[in-house]
Write a structure and sequence with these properties.
Order of helices and strands: EEHEHHE
CATH superfamily: 2-enoyl-CoA Hydratase, Chain A, domain 1
CATH architecture: Alpha-Beta Complex
Structural class: alpha/beta
Strand content: 15-25%
Oligomer: single chain
CATH class: Alpha Beta
Strand order of the largest sheet: 1-2-3-4
Number of strands: 4
Length: about 110
């Protein structure tokens, strides 16, 4: 199962965080996938709008606490890398010249 789904319907791209069993909490795989999707939809001239949502009952629980707690002495580096990756992804989505619609389901 892919941690992120990128679908296109006409000129609309839909990005779905796809870790519903973990409340769509971010780990590095999901963070990198979101960054890749952000770059892809921003660069695609055929995409005129982007929708961001989460699979299941919750949009996103934030960072994956399980990953952080299992990082031991490297927790600071893990959080730093995840935060940097998410910052790049969200900055890319926020700066693109197309509307971004967030469909927030459940807690965000």
């Amino acid at each position: 199962m892919s941690v992120l789904l990128l679908e296109r319907e006409g000129a609309v791209a839909k990005i779905t965080l796809n870790r519903p069993d973990a409340a769509n909490a971010f780990d590095m795989a999901l963070g990198r996938a979101l960054l890749d999707a952000a770059i892809e939809v921003d660069a695609d001239a055929s995409v005129r709008a982007v929708v961001l949502t989460g699979a299941g009952k919750m949009f996103c629980a934030g960072g994956d606490i399980g990953v952080m707690s299992s990082s031991g002495d490297k927790v600071g580096a893990v959080i730093g890398e995840l935060a940097s990756t998410l910052h790049l992804a969200m900055s890319r989505l926020g700066r693109m010249n197309k509307p971004l619609v967030n469909l927030i389901n459940g807690a965000a």
